[in-house]
Amino acid sequence: MPAFVSHPLLKENTLESRVYQEVLVARVLEKGNSLVVAPTALGKTVVGVLLAAHVLMQRPSEKVVFLSPTKPLAVQHQKSLQSFLNIENARVNCLTGTISPEERKLVWQESTVISATPQTIENDIINGTISFEDVGLLVIDEAHRATGEYSYVFIAQQYVKHARNPLVLALTASPGSTEEEIQDVCRNLFIKNIEVKTLQDTDVKSYTHDIEMEWVRVQLPPAFLTIRHDLKSFVREQILFLKKIGLGQGIIPNLYRKKDLLLLQVRIRKELAQNAREKPYLFQAASRVAALMKVTHAITLLESQGVRALNEYFEKMHAESLKPGSSKAVKMVMNDEEIQKALRLARTLKEQNIEHPKLKKLREILLAQFSLNPESRVIVFNHYRDSVKALADHLNGYAPIKAKRFVGQATREKDKGMSQKEQIQSIQLFKEGHYNTLVASSVAEEGLDIPSVDLVIFFEPVPSEIRLIQRRGRTGRKGKGKVIVLIAEKTMDEGMYWASKTKEKRMHETLHKLQGASAPALPQQTTLLGYPEELSEQVLVYCDHREQASGVVRTLKDHADVLIKVKQLEVGDFVLSDDIVVERKTVQDFLNSMLDGRLTQQLAYMASNYKAPLILLEGDARELFSTRNVHHSAVIGMLTSIAVDYRVPLLFTQGPEETAHYLYVIAKREQLGKEKNIRLRVGRKGFTLNEQQRFIIESLPSVGPTLAKSLLHHFKTIQRLANASTKELQNVEKIGEKKAKQIKDVFEKEFKET
Length: 754
Description:
Helices cover 47% and strands 13% of the residues. β14 (539-544), α19 (551-557) and β15 (562-567) form a beta-alpha-beta unit. The protein is globular, with a radius of gyration of 30 Å. The protein starts with 18 loop residues before the first helix and ends in a 6-residue tail after the last helix. Mean pLDDT is 86; it is low at 518-536.
């Protein structure tokens, strides 16, 4: 009989006693904010549960917050916490974006333990509906995500800043392969201590199961090699051209990486911005690099997926080449003789149903697995979303394989995504045996409650150690597991596999080196200079809901004297006073909105509704002329029109932090000692009486210009309209009972401050 953990806040006989988990809890309590790195099978979540029980026992008035990347995982954590903690279920709750902000506020107040998605908590912090002051423990699952602008970074900053007794427990199977990546996660989560557990550690071996790794190699058929040769001829030609003009000297055919091409592309764009007139050949170089990247991707598809995927890729490119304004790179590829020769052979092979040898090997492996163990569960991972459906459809033609496509929520062209509800339903059917094989994209690697499986198959290797570890962690939880990696010999498959293995080894070496060492120095909070303390009253910034998760809002939130109110703004991204509206754009967004016409419409609205409109443009001004294939004169013409025709100032900022700095300074300058009731309803000054009346009526629910005229014609005055009964309102065409009630609510419901 196993021994169980005994604790007043843990339900009896629910948590098996594992010494290494209790030691980890003791280390966190001793050392403070900690990163625990361990494979999935070792029960990292249980460490969080034990730590939560200790914190709540010591400080009963505090809360514990568990964060996880997706709603299904947040719900799973809630169920686990309810099953383990000796706390009434009503006080252990889950917060996700499907719950209204008002309801989330109440749930937060009434809960002791909260499982939530980070985006939900971030939104509630920004809106000021929750406070971290009484949160005694913050558990961050899949902590390797704590980089860049991911919500974990902002939440950790706010937590450490506002909690009375902050304690962070970060959990992951892999925080990164390099010391720089690991240190970045530690800095962002304010980590002071790193704890590492592996399957080889003596204190965990008795609780784990072996995972057998097998690499199955296949050889590409001669016809595939012929196609690859023709595609590589195009690649060699482009590289030779680049070398002749002094670019890409370090790029060697067959040995270069995609990263090398991306760096070269960035270099060419920068030189174009500075020396386009002196070096016109750079335009051709940019097109050739873009074409080179497309054909390189085609080679990878051929090597790892086969002629079906290759044909589909080139069919899309052919369709793109026929569109007006298609890029020179696409036309260059589709007009090349070697490419056309390769395509003719690829089409012939497709017509002959010549498949990638991996497909045959995959069938053999699955049929053997289900023959030996008919109740087996298998996950087949495929890196390419387009290939997942084709692979599942193919496997379903071979009994007893019962395959199910499993992808993310995004819909791509004709490939419809799966909602989280559909994902959860598919996983349940997989558990129950309606399907025995999940053919999955990367969405199945983390953040979903997928049960342990008997076999995990990589249709192609992945170069990331994080993804290797996560995929491998789907097996071997309840018994011996097995992982098979399919590798096409003498292709990029081999390089990707060894890259992931090397990175994993380097990760463990780096972690052991950092374990017990001091965490990197944490950045100090900077304060705005130039205003005396007696003027540091609160300033109000209205923010459009689409900017809510941006780095700008996160930085603004760092200022204690800033109150942010998130609304659906009619004009602009930020409103700072009755006179000032700000449209924030990155260089990429500026060019996109310029090309699709949004920019001129936005400028017109800003200029006609606010006395002092402003554009803050993030990025290097030179990138306006190099990021997209937009003619210099067109960009200069738009910048001139903004200044001369619309009379809207445009200021450049280096990034989100500097944009936030500008907004803060402007808002403070405008609002100090002034009235804070900022106008949000837009409308130019100088309206005629007729226009003013229509403007007011058009603000009513579901009332547009035509219906506003009908209402005014019927009731003659706004006063009579406001006094009309619900039935009288319904006498106007297109006003039903529901719409009439909404209009009456506007006139009769009591105003409440939000």
